[in-house]
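Example 4.3 (complexes with small molecules)
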Amino acid sequence: MLDKVKELIGDVKSFNATTKDEVEAFRIKYLGSKGLLKDLFSEFKNVDAAMRKDFGQALNNLKQSAEGKVAELNDALDSSTSEKSFYGDLTRPSEPIELGSRHPISLVKNQIIDVFNKIGFTVSEGPEIEDDWHNFTALNLPEYHPARDMQDTFFIEQSRGNFGTDILLRTHTSSVQVRYMEENQPPIRTISPGRVFRNEDISARAHCIFHQVEGLYIDTDVSFADLKQTLLYFTKEMFGKSKIRLRPSYFPFTEPSAEVDIYWGLETETDYRITKGTGWLEIMGCGMVDPNVLKNANIDPTKYSGYAFGMGIERIAMLLYQIPDIRMFYENDKRFLEQFKSVL
Ligand code: PHE
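Answer. The structure with phenylalanine bound is encoded below.
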């Protein structure tokens, strides 16, 4: 009899169930009103007096084991079903994570940086809030110079009567190049990407905040031919087109100065907006650095010469991606931004 109870204890301990019904059947079998324990307890009186103590203990042990097992299995099943309904099937494949995309301005900026990196230009950066010296005066735009009006400026502090101490939002990243020249002697090969600000009316073609990349190259014996070759290299790498023309122009900080046009062709000209039917498109300004600018930045103009150029990133991005309105860059409309997902 005692052996039988011990065997049952072993059975109880090794029992397992995967459903509540199985647990219930188990409970009824052992603990139910007509269950095994009931029968065994009724056998108690038939057991030898000498065995009663052991038998009693074994029975209690069986009862506790069975009760413990029922509770344990019910708990386990409860928690696993609630976990399941909460998380669903934990082994199912997860939702795909939506990938972001780079902003087209960053894409084009990085592309321009890559092209110039390959020929030895490094990136330099400077503050968006500038002083008058770095944005104007050092760039050969002294007080009352009419060319100051070429770029309508947002002033932060304008101290009348004490000219040269004004604080403003930089109107171009040429200011970064002044800072770079002040701190480095030639040879200099640097490009300065960054955000610039001009107090202009916002339209499909112009914005009061936009981005530029300006470049500066200073060494001994730098000539206009070097500039032209660099521009040719750039347009070929960037656009796959190498027909360019240089139109004489004016910038206070370069002499001579030119405007660079690229021959874009008329294939993409759907509404005359891109090249206005000429096939030519202006993409940047450039020129030989004015000796006054070198002097202002403590570089000896009798020893060194250099060229500089500057372009608007938005304009180039509009061209590359056929974007009709500059304002789309700043609206952060997901439908617009998502179109650049595949571009790295
Ligand atoms: N700084 C000029 C601008 O913002 C561009 C430029 C740079 C022109 C260098 C010539 C040389 O318009």
